[in-house]
Specification:
Strand 7 (131-137) and strand 8 (143-149) form a beta hairpin. It contains five helices and 16 strands. It has 278 residues and is α+β, with helices and mostly antiparallel strands. 22% of the residues lie in helices and 39% in strands. It has two domains: 5-24 and 34-149, 2,3-Dihydroxybiphenyl 1,2-Dioxygenase, domain 1 (Roll), CATH 3.10.180.10; 164-274, 2,3-Dihydroxybiphenyl 1,2-Dioxygenase, domain 1 (Roll), CATH 3.10.180.
Amino acid sequence: MRLTALSLSILVVVLTAGCATQLPEVPPISESGTYIPGKVVWHDLVTPDLGGAKAYYGQLFGWTFENVDDNYALIRDRGELIGGMAEVKSHDSYSYWIPLVSVTDVDRAVATTTAAGGQRIVKPFDVPGRGRVAVLEDPQGATFAVVRSAQGDPSDREATVNRWLWHEVWSDDVDRSAAFYSSLAAYSNAHTEIRDVDYRYLESGGEPRVGLLKKGDPEIGTTWVSYVRVADVAATVAKVRALGGVVLMEPRDDLRHGSVAIIADPKGAGLVVQEVER
């Protein structure tokens, strides 16, 4: 479920053309005035069916939407901006979630990525009101974006139900991933144990930011994976099926006590849903 360069290039055209010709300014990610390099501060869904995506995620998580133009909508949860959706008609007709990582200098992040063997998929561009953005592929092929937001990053706080909870990179080579992302956003490496299994993650500003996992399936490409907190993972899985989505991994008692499941929307965009208290 990786993004293609074609899909991302079209996405940039949608975003920049919409801002330039229809809306002079897009709401900022945050107005905090402070920056947290290494934090995932935004998510965009690229989808061939914007109307269908809004209906699905609106019923699944209770999110609401604000149209920017015919091709892009902002996502709100209880009034707060948490992401966006862009309709992109592409040859593969899949949808994808793109995490945006805060960096101090977008152009430098691009140079760091290409020097490490990654790729610049979309060169840096400025979105009025939003900030400077580039889309990249890490040296193992995982697609993500970097941003220097115009007015600061969202403050750290506990994720409430139906909000973004956590992020991971599922990698062929965890050591290589750790080295690359540490050079990109000045992360420090950390470890913890989850059910007697060593779990690696990256932190910045004294807070955990991104987990690093060895891929369990060699057929899956290295990828970023985002988690959404839910009140009841079993009920969420049932709702996914009722709405036409796909359950890629059922809740399992042997995996985090059955508190997680992997789902995909009707067009293929994957997420992990997780209960926090169990």
